[in-house]
Each structure stands twice: as structure tokens, then as C-alpha cells.
Amino acid sequence: MSLAPLPDAYRQAPFDEGCAPRRLLRLFGGKWVTMILHTLHLLGGASRPGALLRSIPGLSKKMMTQTLRDLEEMGLVARDVRQAMPPVVEYRLTVLGRKMVEPVEMLYRWGAEHAAMLDRVDANLARARKAE
Amino acid sequence: MSLAPLPDAYRQAPFDEGCAPRRLLRLFGGKWVTMILHTLHLLGGASRPGALLRSIPGLSKKMMTQTLRDLEEMGLVARDVRQAMPPVVEYRLTVLGRKMVEPVEMLYRWGAEHAAMLDRVDANLARARKAE
DNA sequence: CTGTATCCTTCACGATACTG
DNA sequence: CAGTATCGTGAAGGATACAG
How crowded is residue B116: how many other Cβ atoms within 10 Å of its Cβ? Predict the structure, then answer.
């Protein structure tokens, strides 16, 4: 899996504080951001909070809404509300959001294809910690 | 940029706590992990700590050594020491490390190619925060 | 069902100073 | 030059209970 030549912008200042890659990683830094984007993408169309919550083991109601709010502010996710009792709420990716999902999908794909490698990394870690 | 069909392992349990993608993201969670891997890769061959430190704005000596130790334990980075005064130390990616660099490079590449999109995300965020 | 408000704990990170 | 030790802080995340 060899990589194509790097674009110019990449060569210029790949290490600066505010460079694009660092900003991207910062954006994905939160524990649930990528999970939620990825799930919204996989479920497709509009998703209700309950479904989202059930789809992501370990995710709490609080962290879900908090993360969704952040994604909303970034313009990656839209929230639709239909007043009723009980209320009906749906979340969906915006156009911008669908584009930002690309790198997330890359990561998920790569991770799934190289699970064995991650096993080795974990095994190395466990052995090293034990040797102390 | 359309994506190929998903591999089976990816379909099976993409949401579980211990699934490969989540482990990958967890591995990259540290603030400096990806930066250091990426830099070791770009510099190529063996790198001295000083050079590394100078290449990554904002990185402190402490966080550098700490992160390098972690990467060593994972088997991604090797440390060569030549006893002398002053001592000569070099870090290089292992075979495993060179493979694990792939997803990092993907992120950097994508980030660089879509800097404008990241600008929009940041602008959205700034506007939303200001509107409060 | 969806969302908010508190409280509390943890730990990742940074600043600083010191050793060989 | 490389590395360690120590202390302090903020922010992220989890548990719980409540509200519309």
C-alpha cells in the first residue's frame, strides 16, 4: 500500500500548530465524535437519539447530546424536531458532515482490515507493562 | 471520492467497545502520538531527540520522551543508544511502526487536501459560540 | 422519549527544576 | 544533549437525578 506524492500544502508546514492535519486530529480528539459520525453515516438518512444510543455501546445520554451539540455548532450535523408528546427528534449529517465523514471511514476501514496488527500492538504493550 | 464496499470484519461489530477501529482511535488519542509518528516517517531513517523536538512546535521534552516510551512499548519505535559524553541517541520506526504510520499519513494527507473545509468548520464553531 | 443540571473523579498535559 | 522527578491545573468524561 504505497502512497502517492504529497500535495504542496502538505509539504509547506506540516508541523505548525494550526496546520490542517493537526486541526483535523483535534476535531476527532473527543472520545465519541468519530463513533457518532460513523454511526450516523452507517445508519443513513435520519437517526433518532434512542437508536443512536443503542447502537454505540458505552455511550451515555449526556455525552451523546453534548457531542451532537458540538457537531451541530460545527455544521456537521442537523437536528430536526417535531413537537409532540413524546417529542420526535432526528439527527442527520449535513452536506459538510458527509464530507467530513470520509477520513472517519478511512480510519474505520483501515482498522478493520488490520485488526491483527492492533492485536500485536496490544500484546506488545501488555508484555512491556508486565515486565516492569 | 467514493468508497469501496466494506470488508466483512467491518460489518460484523463496528460498534463494540473492543473493536479494531476504536482501538486504533484510542491509540492515536494522545496529543503527540500521531505528530511524532508522522515526523519520524517524514524525517526518514533515524532521528535524534533534539531534531524531533525542534521539528514539532509546542512539543515539550517531557511529553516527547513519554510518548516515545509508549511507542517503544507498543513496538512501533526503536531506541538506539551509543554511550558517550554527551550521549548519542536515535529513534527510528520499527517494521510494525512503518505499517502503523499508514493511517496517520492518510489523515495528514486528507487534512492537507481539505484545509478549506476545516476552515469552514472552525468558522461555524466560532459563529455558534459567539451567538450565545 | 429527549434533554438538562450537578457533582465528582481522573488523568493528560504543561511548567519547572534537577541529574549524568 | 538526553532524560527524569515533582507539582499543579484544566478539561473530559461518567454517575445520578430531575424536567418537559
Answer: 8
Distance CA A73 to C1' C20 in A: 51
Length of chain A: 132
10 Å CB burial of residue B34 (0-12, 13-18, 19+) is: buried
Q: CA B49, CA B52: separation in Å to the nearest integer?
A: 5
Buried b (16+ CB within 10 A) or exposed e, B46-58: ebeeeebeebbee
Q: A13: helix, coil or strand?
A: coil
A29 touches strand C (CB under 7 A): no
User: Domain range spanning residue A43?
Assistant: 15-131
For the segment A22-73, what is each residue's pLDDT rounded down to a tens digit?
A: 889 888 888 999 999 999 999 988 999 999 999 999 999 999 999 999 999 9
Question: What is this structure's pTM?
Answer: 0.88
Domain count, chain B: 1
Q: Is residue B4 part of a domain?
A: no
Q: Residue B77 is part of a domain; what is its CATH number?
A: 1.10.10.10
**How many Cβ contacts (< 8 angstroms) between chains A and B?**
169
Asked whether residue A8 is domain-assigned, the answer is no
In angstroms, the separation between the Cα of residue A64 and the nearest Cα of chain B is 14
